[in-house]
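step=encode ok
step=design start
structure_in=
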C-alpha cells in the first residue's frame, strides 16, 4: 500500500510538473513582445464589480457540477451534503486540469465519494450521468451554433473552424460511448474481465471468488441505479437544465470581462457564442487544461471584439479567473479534504 501511495504521489508530481511547463510556455507566448507593465495597469483598471461578477461565474461553473452530483445522489437515496459534493467538483476540476484530456478528474472524484461512504455503483452511475449530460449539453449548444449561426461563426473562427468541427465530433462520440457503457453491463463486465486477466498475467492479482462476488454486487447496484434513473426522468430533466445554466455561466464570463474593461459595440450574444465555440473546439484536446491552444485561439477569434491592447488584457483576466483561479481553489480544496 505504501509503495502504491508513493507511486500515485510521483504520478501527481509528474503531472504537476508537465502542467507547470505548459503554463510557463503559455505565459511566454501570451506576453512575448507585450508591455507587461501596461497590461498589469490595464487589468487593475477593470471595474471591481465586474471582476467580482466574473469570479462568481467561474466559481458557479465548477460548483454547479457539485450541485448536480448532490441532486442525483440524493435522488437515488445516497446521503451526502451539498458542500461535500461541491468539494468533489473542485477536486475533479483540479485533476482534470493537470491531466491530458481531463482524464484524472472523475477517478479522483470517485475515490473521495467512495471514501465518504457513498456506494461505488451509485457514485459511478452519478458521475457517468453528469459526464454524459455535460457532453450532451455541449454538443447540443455546438450543433445549435453551427445550424443557426454558421456564417458569423466561420467569420470569427476562420482557420480554427476545422478545429471546432473536430471538437464537436469528438464530444458527440464521447456521448455515444458513455451512453453505451452506462446502459450495457456487458461492456463493464468485459472491461473488468480484461483488466483482471492483465493483472493476473502481471502477477499483481490472484483469481479469487471474493473479487468476482464484489464485481457482481457492484453490477447489481449499478443496474438498479440506472433503472432508477430511467424511471425518474424528472431527475435527468432537472440535471440537464442545471447543466445548461452551468455551461453558459463560463461563456457569459467573457462578456462580463468585455463590459468590465469599458468596451462597447459588440453584441453580448456574439461574445457568448464565440466563447462557447472556443470551449467546444479545445475541450477534448490532449493537453493539460487545454493550455496554449485556448489562449492562441482566443487571441485569434476575439481580435475584432477586444480591440487594441485589451485583447491580451482580456486573455489574462478571462483565463486567469475561469481556469487558473479555479485551479488554485481546487488545489486548496484537495489539500483540505485530503487531510481529513
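sequence_out=
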Amino acid at each position: 500500500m505504501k509503495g502504491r501511495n508513493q507511486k500515485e504521489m510521483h504520478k501527481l508530481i509528474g503531472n504537476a510538473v508537465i502542467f507547470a511547463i505548459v503554463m510557463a510556455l503559455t505565459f511566454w507566448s501570451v506576453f512575448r513582445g507585450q508591455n507587461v507593465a501596461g497590461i498589469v495597469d490595464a487589468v487593475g483598471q477593470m471595474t471591481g464589480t465586474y471582476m467580482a461578477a466574473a469570479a462568481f461565474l467561474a466559481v458557479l461553473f465548477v460548483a454547479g457540477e457539485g450541485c448536480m452530483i448532490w441532486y442525483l445522489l440524493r435522488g437515488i437515496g445516497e446521503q451526502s451534503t451539498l458542500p461535500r459534493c461541491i468539494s468533489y467538483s473542485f477536486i475533479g476540476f483540479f485533476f482534470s486540469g493537470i491531466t491530458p484530456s481531463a482524464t484524472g478528474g472523475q477517478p479522483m472524484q470517485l475515490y473521495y465519494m467512495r471514501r465518504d461512504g457513498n456506494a461505488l455503483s451509485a457514485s459511478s452511475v452519478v458521475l457517468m450521468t453528469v459526464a454524459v449530460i455535460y457532453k450532451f449539453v455541449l454538443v447540443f449548444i455546438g450543433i445549435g451554433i453551427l445550424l443557426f449561426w454558421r456564417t458569423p461563426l466561420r467569420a470569427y473562427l476562420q482557420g480554427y473552424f476545422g478545429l471546432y468541427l473536430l471538437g464537436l465530433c469528438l464530444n458527440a462520440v464521447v456521448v455515444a460511448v458513455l451512453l453505451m457503457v452506462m446502459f450495457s453491463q456487458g461492456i463493464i463486465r468485459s472491461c473488468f474481465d480484461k483488466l483482471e486477466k492483465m493483472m493476473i498475467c502481471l502477477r499483481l492479482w490472484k483469481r479469487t471468488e471474493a473479487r468476482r462476488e464484489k464485481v457482481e454486487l457492484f453490477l447489481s447496484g449499478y443496474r438498479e441505479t440506472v433503472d432508477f434513473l430511467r424511471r425518474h426522468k424528472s431527475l435527468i430533466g432537472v440535471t440537464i437544465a442545471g447543466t445548461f445554466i452551468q455551461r453558459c455561466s463560463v461563456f457569459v464570463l467573457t462578456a462580463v470581462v468585455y463590459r468590465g474593461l469599458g468596451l462597447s459595440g459588440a453584441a453580448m450574444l456574439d461574445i457568448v457564442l464565440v466563447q462557447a465555440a472556443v470551449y467546444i473546439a479545445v475541450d477534448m484536446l490532449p493537453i493539460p487544461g487545454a493550455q496554449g491552444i485556448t489562449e492562441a485561439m482566443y487571441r485569434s477569434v476575439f481580435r475584432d471584439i477586444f480591440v487594441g491592447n485589451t485583447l491580451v488584457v482580456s486573455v489574462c483576466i478571462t483565463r486567469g479567473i475561469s481556469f487558473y483561479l479555479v485551479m488554485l481553489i481546487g488545489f486548496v480544496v484537495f489539500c483540505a479534504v485530503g487531510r481529513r
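step=design ok
step=annotate ok -> The chain has a mean pLDDT of 81.
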